[in-house]
Amino acid sequence: MNANCYVPGDGQLEHAYHMAREWYAAYEVDTDAAIARALEVPISLHCWQADDVQGLETHEGNIDGGGIMATGGYPGRARNGDEIRQDLTQVLTLTPGVLRANIHAFYAETGSTPVDRDALAPEHFARWMDWAAAQKIGLDFNTTFFAHPLAADGYTLSHADPAVRDFWVAHGVACRHIAQAMAERLDSPCVLNHWIPDGAKDSPADRWSPRTRLVASYDRLLAAEHGIDRARCVDAVESKLFGLGSEDYVVGSFEFYSAFALTRKLLLCLDMGHFHPTETIHDKLSALLQFHERLLLHVSRPLRWDSDHVVIFNDDLRAVFQEWVRGGALDRAVVAMDFFDASINRVAAYVIGARATRKALLYSLLDPVALLQACEQAGNHARKLALVEEWKTMPFDAVWHWCCLQAGTPPGAAWLSAVDAYERDVLAKRV
Ligand code: RNT
Ligand code: ZN
Q: What is the CA radius of gyration of the chain?
């Protein structure tokens, strides 16, 4: 197939855009403004799609992954930090708009000397920071409370053994210093997300003590005495409904963290896969944002369970961003991706997910909010519904292609040629 066959030439795309712009303008929607705004919102690219959430530590034997599991054996998995960065660099060139990179603590590069999680320091992320500086992007960070012998029985910060809790509190504090260093070096606040796997497979007789201990551990981890500047290191906490091996009880549940984040002024993280299978998160935004200043979003795609499928431009994603836009609250959204698929080209997986996220942002910014809300206020619900329906077939693709071109990235599916070449020249050689 001809590499250029995926899209028409730029002249035709421009023509199509001008027609689309007029069409939207008839409904008082400014497509130029929507494109500019959509490109501004940072999307944080998770480093863990490149290597199937393996991390860069070396462990003896099998280590429990805390219920996180990438399935599939497609060739080309990144095997070290350089390969992950090489893959992410490729993704940056194919995804329009402002991007960041999101690093997990177990992607530390400590040379030949293993450094345990409680002793990690900014120097172990020097290569990540140098790379981000060269790419002119910011970094976000994550504590890694899984894939470690001290997490093997399924409890970390809420563990019954104080020595285990101490270790993980020390890990959290170490990560806060690292996040602060990343923020300083790159001159951009670093979101530090905390997710723990803690929970029980079946019928715990005591649901109370682990939660009480979890509050105490986090309070130690977040204590002022660590001297962390919270404008630089922005701590976030991520809730979950269940995990593999914690089906019955998760200590850090949604209720736990929504109250905890509010009382400690933390960012609450909503992962799209961390709710009941038919429960979507868009309706939660207007409720939570009455009380929370901002929310962190883990853009993911649960298929029947928290399966972390590659994100696509589907109803759920559109509904989430539409809510933010309709509430005039897009500046209160912090957007990060969280999915992993080892069964397809991993770089393509990144590009599909990141472009779908940007596309959903753009789509939401083209929403005729004022018109829809006016119909609703006037009691004309049929008109509102008709417009909602009409919107599904507006010439959105012309605006999206133009958005890609404005950002200097390939329109349409033209990015596939670059990924094909990258697979041939780089990924296929990783054996
Ligand atoms: C796990 C959480 C968490 C992880 C990453 C790797 O269920 O979603 O965000 O996916 O920290
Ligand atoms: Zn997540």
A: 22
**Torsion angles phi and psi, residue 224, rounded to 5:** -60, -30
Q: From atom 11 of ligand 1, which residue's Cα is the shortest distance away? A: 195
Q: Where are the alpha helices (DSSP H) in 222-345?
A: 254-264, 282-288, 315-326
CA–CA distance, 105 with 126 (Å, rounded to integer):
13
Which residue stretches of the chain have pLDDT < 50? 1
Q: Which residues have a catalytic role annotated?
A: 195, 238, 240, 271, 274, 298, 306, 308, 338
Helix runs in 236-301, H state only: 254-264, 282-288
**Does residue 261 belong to any structural domain of this protein?**
yes
**Short-list 88, 82, 75, CA closest to 49:** 88
196 touches 237 (CB < 8 A): no
- Confirm or reject: Cβ of 198 under 6 Å from ligand 1: no
Give distance in angstroms: CA of 253 to centre of ligand 1: 14
- The reply to whether ligand 1 has any atom less than 6 angstroms from the CB of 53 is yes
Q: Is residue 386 part of a domain?
A: no
Q: What CATH number corresponds to the domain at position 329?
A: 3.20.20.150
Query: How many Å is the maximal CA-CA distance in the chain?
Result: 69
Per-residue pLDDT of 216-271, as tens digits, reads: 999 999 999 999 999 999 999 999 999 999 999 999 999 999 999 999 999 999 99
* Residue 35 CB coordination number (10 Å): 25
Q: What is the number of the ligand 1 atom nearest to the C-alpha of 271? A: 8
CB 48 near ligand 1, within 6 Å: yes
Provide the domain count of the chain. Answer: 1
Q: Which residues surround ligand 2, an ion (CB under 5 A)?
A: 271, 298, 338
Q: Report whether 167 contacts 118 (CB < 8 A).
A: yes
Question: Which of 44, 84, 195, 239 best tests ligand 1's pocket when mutated (most atoms within 8 Å of CB)?
Answer: 195
The whole domain housing 192 covers: 41-368
H-helix or E-strand spanning residue 94: helix 81-94
Residues near 270 by beta carbon (within 8 Å), at least 6 away in sequence: 238, 239, 281, 284, 288, 295, 296, 297, 298
In a domain, 411, yes or no: no
- Number of the ligand 1 atom closest to the C-alpha atom of 300: 8
Task: Specify the pTM.
Answer: 0.97
Inside any domain, residue 135 = yes
Between helices 396-406 and 31-40, what is the axis angle to 10°? 50
151 CB burial (10 A radius; 0-12, 13-18, 19+)? buried
**d(CA 359, ligand 2 centre) in Å:** 20
Q: Please calculate the CA angle 114-115-118 and round it to the nearest 5 degrees.
A: 155
